[in-house]
Queue: 3 jobs
Job 1
Amino acid sequence: MTKTLQEIIDANPEAETFRFGDSAELCAEILNLVRSGVKTATCDAASAYGQGGDAWPEVGRRDVALNWDGTPAVMVETVAVFTRRFNEMDAAFVKEQGEFRDLEHWRNGYKAYFQRNGGFSEDMKLMCERFKVIEDFA
């Protein structure tokens, strides 16, 4: 039986919902990497969190990644969360994100992403999160 988003949230009232990426294509691509275990980390602009934004990830909290259409895709549990500046990103964390060839590829991809989604600066603060998949709703 397929679980509805409401059933999942009712069973996990602390859970936040979110989408990876900023398009249907990117969301699907990233979810495939998450499901395959290639992607075990992510980052976003720290300014996207807090008052008026998403709740800051917390170690141990389980959240629901959605498909682009808003249906539940996977439940993930945060295993680590920290901040880092864009210009301080390292190759090891980039590798955990799964979708980039190397640090330069990450820089180019995220610079474009941040420019499309609210602004970019070399020293912008990032929320960096490591997670594990708890349940796949596919």
Job 2
Amino acid sequence: MQLLPTWSSGGRLPSLNSGDSTAGLDSSVSELMGYGAGLTPDGDDYLLGYLALLWSWQHLDPISAHLKLLRPVIKHQLHRTTSISRHYLGLALQGHYLQPIDHLSTVPIRGSPPLDVKRAAINVMQFGSSSGADCFAGFLRGIRTLGKVTQEEMS
């Protein structure tokens, strides 16, 4: 995956935005679902991290609306990936995550010290050979989405 626009990896550059239409989300998820190698492909891990971050913030109307569009799109495309990814993403669509991912999602909300946030991020990034890093990248994308939404609400 090309996690930064300036990387010249030739991989896919994920694009998920809270203002995307269903068709736009369908296209973005289609680019990610099943993309990459391994038991849990890179694109699936990215989606998992993105969902995990946003799940904790769905009390905000724009995030709730975004998830309302995104969740069925992901569910509809689960057949395109591995059985293990289908399992984890299926649970994520219901708000269930592995403990380290869930912990990382809640640490910032609780106002934990930066060192606790760093430890939680490291725990997630240690999954598999690249799964944790891909999941964390999706988590960071979720933070960007959240930042845009909260900035728009303040305007």
Job 3
Amino acid sequence: MNRGVADYVIRVATDPHDLPLQAWNDLLRAQELPTPFMRLEYFQALHASGSAVASTGWQPQFLSLWHGDELVGACPAYLKSHSYGEYVFDWAWADAYARHGLSYYPKLLVAVPFTPVPGARLLARDAAARDALVRGLQALAAQLQLSSAHVLFCSDADMAALQGAGWLPRHNVQFHWQNTQQTPREFKDYLASLQRDKRKKIQQEQRRVREAGVRFEVREGAQISAQDWDFFYRCYTLTYRAHRSTPYLSRSFFAEASRQMAQHWLMFIAYREGERLAASLLALDPERRTAYGRYWGALEAVPCLHFDACYYQPLAWCLAQGYQRFEGGAQGEHKMARGLMPVGTQSAHRLAHPQFRDAVAEFLAREGEAMHDYVNELEQHQPFKKA
């Protein structure tokens, strides 16, 4: 791929361990919205643990862009044989293809498996390298005769490059807490900033947890022991079992991720009468003072324990540590009552079939208008006191 007098070379890796760790992470640090989930160690842990591999429907096709011996672009791409673990739903598109006798799968997906966290997806040295990555994705999809290509939860820079190449934008919403200079560093003062009914409900929910005899301990980074991880994983699998589902991530994934990325994990463990009862897991970006709610589970149901373990304890910790952002994960407008406000997310899609592309474009335009109206409506229900 020519860039003036210099040549770009694109390579496709079927194992993230084949890519240069330091060079990938250096690219990531230079992006507008890096997250720990885009570190190469994270993808390597997913692969080594068998969590995101061809046999689970995630066949790696990682693109790397080279200028001589220098890595100037990269992205985590997968051939997908299903749409599980993505959180941007295209089941209706796959069904429409099937009803017309066409194959929607496999498709090409650029995403962090099982992780609906917005951030940079096309790691690039500059705009030219990002455009080259987009052309590389299109060339790979065409070469493999795929129905479509998708980039999920991408950054603004990614979206600009993708839309510039004719990809279709899709918009959704999540709920994040963001700190301000006016926000206090103690949870009781944070509660005082909420409207009276919201504050009272949170206080009642925390009171019910305390009256059940539950207390919390927090472990950060290397403080999280192997026994802590074992207990957390037991809780994690119970959550999936309660929903009659199968966990996406294996115990060995958490072992590998905790070994290679210890500084990026925070765990809250709930105790009752000295016995462990529940656990919630957050990921951390200490440099950017951002926390990400990830997983939770409990050995038994305790009223309001989920809210305390997944929202109130993390928010109190973020306030005390001076963190500026807490992302509560996908979906859930109930999070607004806890002070997590709507934030737009975006993805981009390219469909090879022209008639299906036109139909999806029309659908996304209508969906985008509805999403805009939905966010505007949510903004009218602020949980905070009016200034």
